[in-house]
């Protein structure tokens, strides 16, 4: 494979800042940012941690959580002092309410649902279920900012508590958001005085975005020079990155809990147009899905009304090798969630092992043009072809 001179980044980076919408306050009018009781935090896990007290759950009670999870949300619930019990999902990662019913007893106080990759869980049914059983509903929207259920309720507007990881969808150095009371009423005991994110952290992660943007563009020489210069500066200043906090990653770091978002992250929101983000992601998703359909298994082949996809998930035979080969062709991807949390019973964890072993996430974000999306499709087809792994009847990957 020939070396490439630009990269398709898997997350938005500011690489094409001239295509960003102008300075406006549009973001303030979109859910969750227009919710009566919303609050910025450093990241999604911090949003969850500080939102939990508003639910007034009995101390040490049990929260039902899904078998397919990142792990850090589980750490957050444990750190907040709750017990956990796992429930099953369907083959398509929808909540299995019959299994949830089987897990109930007096100790269960809340149901935790994850909206995967920008696709809503069946919110009306879940809300009805929780009301009938007096359970509090926690919506994890870390992967699903700006998603709606069938064009109706916003994801995060139905639960008693919803958390968002804003920097996963938008190019911010960090930023989580929490909404309580369905976003309608102000019952905000969470007005916890969080400190603004440390300057060092904001600066470092803004530089990361700049690096990623330059790396993605044809300005890679500039990026290489900048990398060399920053290595030199770091050595001169004896800069230790671990000395400050970072958003993202699977490692539990309790230092994050003291922090909100920086004014810089919130200011950057003025360049975001939620409607444009949703529209662009949907167009890119549809294009990539159409190009890849029939070549490999697409676990989310269609776009329901209201979905705001974070990536295009695909099932591939050996995802680490597949990801490396894509990278050689200049296409970044994400290998989400290859390990279960240790607290998940192994027999239940085994039920989603296919997802953990085979699911790779391809870029479709708002900064990509259709030409970029075609480049992703071409790279995937090349990797499949080189490996002799094209699977016309690729449903086998999920069987
Ligand atoms: C499902 C889910 N919930 C919560 C989180 C925590 O979000 P953050 O990384 O913004 O703290 C993540 C992070 O990847 C996640 O994937």
Show the helix and strand layout:
Blueprint: E1 38-41, H1 44-51, E2 62-66, H2 72-79, E3 83-87, H3 97-103, E4 108-114, H4 123-132, E5 136-141, E6 161-165, H5 166-169, E7 176-180, H6 199-216, H7 220-237, H8 263-268, H9 274-292, E8 312-315, H10 319-328, H11 346-350, H12 353-358, E9 359-362, H13 370-386
Parallel strand pairs: 2-3, 2-4, 4-5, 5-6
Antiparallel strand pairs: 1-7, 6-7, 8-9
Helix pairs in contact: 1-2, 6-7, 9-13
The chain binds pyridoxal-5'-phosphate (PLP).
Attribute tags:
single chain, 399 residues, alpha/beta, Aspartate Aminotransferase, domain 2, Aspartate Aminotransferase, domain 1, 3 domains, seven-stranded mixed beta sheet, two-stranded antiparallel ribbon, 13 helices, 9 strands, 34% helix, globular, disordered C terminus, binds pyridoxal-5'-phosphate
Order of helices and strands: EHEHEHEHEEHEHHHHEHHHEH
Order of strands in the sheet with the most strands?
1-7-6-5-4-2-3
Mind telling me the C-alpha Rg?
21 Å
Structural class: alpha/beta
Architecture (CATH level 2) name of the largest domain:
3-Layer(aba) Sandwich
Distance between the termini: 32 Å
Overall mean confidence score, pLDDT: 90
Low-pLDDT runs: 392-399
DSSP strand content: 5-15%
Helix content: 25-40%
Number of helices: 13
CATH topology name of the largest domain, in short, is Aspartate Aminotransferase, domain 2
Oligomerization: single chain
For CATH, the homologous superfamily of the largest domain is named as Type I PLP-dependent aspartate aminotransferase-like (Major domain)
């Amino acid at each position: 494979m020939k070396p490439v001179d630009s990269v398709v980044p898997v997350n938005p980076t500011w690489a094409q800042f001239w295509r960003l919408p102008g300075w406006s306050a549009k973001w303030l009018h979109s859910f969750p940012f227009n919710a009566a009781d919303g609050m910025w935090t450093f990241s999604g896990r911090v949003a969850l941690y500080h939102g939990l007290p508003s639910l007034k759950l009995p101390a040490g009670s049990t929260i039902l959580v899904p078998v397919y999870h990142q792990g850090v949300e589980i750490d957050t619930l444990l750190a907040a002092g709750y017990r956990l019990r796992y429930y099953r999902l369907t083959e398509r990662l929808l909540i299995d309410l019959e299994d949830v019913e089987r897990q109930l007893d007096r100790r269960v106080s809340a149901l935790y649902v994850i909206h995967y990759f920008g696709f809503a869980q069946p919110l009306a049914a879940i809300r009805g279920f929780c009301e009938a059983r007096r359970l509090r509903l926690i919506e994890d929207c870390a992967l699903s900012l700006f998603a709606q259920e069938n064009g109706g309720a916003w994801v995060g507007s139905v639960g008693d508590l919803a958390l968002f990881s804003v920097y996963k969808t938008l190019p911010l150095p960090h930023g989580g958001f929490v909404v309580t009371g369905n976003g309608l009423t102000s019952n905000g005991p969470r007005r916890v005085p969080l400190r603004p994110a440390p300057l060092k952290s904001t600066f470092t992660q803004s530089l990361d975005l700049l690096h990623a943007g330059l790396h993605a563009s044809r300005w890679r020489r500039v990026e290489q020079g900048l990398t060399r210069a920053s290595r030199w500066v770091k050595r001169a200043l004896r800069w230790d990155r671990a000395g400050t906090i970072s958003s993202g990653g699977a490692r539990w770091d309790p230092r994050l809990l003291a922090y909100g978002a920086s004014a810089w992250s919130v200011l950057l929101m003025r360049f975001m147009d939620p409607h444009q983000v949703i529209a662009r992601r949907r167009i890119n998703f549809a294009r990539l899905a159409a190009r890849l359909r029939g070549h490999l298994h697409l676990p989310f082949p269609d776009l329901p009304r209201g979905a705001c996809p974070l990536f295009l998930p695909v099932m591939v035979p050996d995802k680490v090798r597949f990801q490396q080969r894509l990278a050689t062709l200049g296409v970044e991807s994400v290998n989400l969630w290859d390990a279960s949390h240790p607290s998940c019973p192994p027999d239940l964890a085994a039920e989603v092992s296919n997802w953990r072993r085979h699911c790779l996430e391809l870029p479709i974000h708002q900064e990509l043009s259709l030409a970029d999306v075609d480049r992703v499709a071409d790279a995937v087809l090349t990797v499949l072809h080189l490996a002799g792994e094209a699977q016309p009847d690729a449903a086998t990957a999920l069987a």
